[in-house]
Amino acid sequence: MPIATVNPVDGETVRTFDALSGDEVERRLALADRTFATYRTTSFAERARLLRAAADLLEKEEAEIGRTMTLEMGKTYAAARAEAAKCVKAMRWYADRAEGLLADEHPEQRDVEDSGARAARVVYRPLGVVLAVMPWNFPLWQVVRFAAPALMAGNVGLLKHASNVPQTALYLGDLFRRAGFPEGAFQTLLVPSSAIEAIPRDPRVKAATLTGSEPAGRSVAAIAGDEIKRTVLELGGSDPYLVLPSADVEAAARTAVTARVQNNGQSCIAAKRFLVHADAYEEFARAFVAGVAALRVGDPMDEHTDVGPLSSEQGRADLEELVDDAVAKGARVLTGGKRPEDRPAGWFYEPTVLADITPEMRIHREETFGPVATLYRFTGLDEGIGLANDTSFGLSSNVWTRDAAEKERCVRDIEAGGVFFNGMTASHPALPFGGVKRSGYGRELAGHGIKEFCNVTTVWEGPED
User: Where do the Aldehyde dehydrogenase domain residues begin and end (predicted)?
Assistant: First the structure.
């Protein structure tokens, strides 16, 4: 894929970029390594000052960077501005809390004495240069939720962003530079995916984090494993959305529409499989289908648009293949299921709901990255949880119920990194985020996220010290 901004509204190439030369990549790697040697010794107060300065700049430039994100990948302008505001919030959250999150930990004195020590503590130290391989769907947020904790921990970052969001990628590198971070603390590498293998293999790079597809995660994890380096992976998702008989069905259906089509349906944590108890199925299906059918598809810069285009022509083609395969094998199209006739240019696809899904259909197993929902009926909690877990993914889940026992059962038995009751999955700086199974491993955000790229160091002092 060329490194280029291509407007998904009309398919026109806006701007192309040359990939960095091998010599320039080497220069930036060397700079990152040198910068870490001194940046690691800066105080939390100094790091927080710099991160707050970056947050202030981003807050002032929310409208501008929002337009850039919309241009590059097609999210609605309102969603793009909200993404920028969320990044500002995360930066300030870590600036305020990082020192406390990484404070030395002291075991109980009786355990210290039992170890033969006079004193003992656990210290968190930065690892060094961390490579971040990031996707296009949340081009600002995915990076900031890595960069804010990593920089506050004393690490330095190298960003390899998706090739279709180069202007957002360059903005991020420039943002941290203008905020006053040392040269080399955070650098954007405009390189193709084919150039990635050499970077995590470089001994100056100590760890990698990747958000993206399962094949991309498998590739980076294999390289890091071969080099014995730490990784955090956040990969695909096919999140279940369970509706049980005690739920507020009207609210569940209303929220389900947003949960599925957020970010034009291109979100790993979007609800994708809607599993509804037979006692609530007809009411939910009627309201959900009506809500999806009422969505307005159009120019993402138009404030009245609910769903913009998919990010690429290939992305739409992949989605169409899944829908066509399901329909050919007996799925019913309750709404949508085709390209909108009034949008001949660009990569638009109608918000779609499919029913009568069977295991033989690809859509039952594969992630739908676009505004397509699958609707299932079940008759008991055991069956519902079984359907929820009948996927290779395990990123998050949504459950609608007022029953306390059902809640505890779902927390115990649903195989996912999160269980969100009576609402839709969302990420927040204070809550750890990540998945299980083929959705990846490790956690971002909260205290868990900032500690992922720290050396957990045991300090033991003998009785004669």
Answer: 3-459
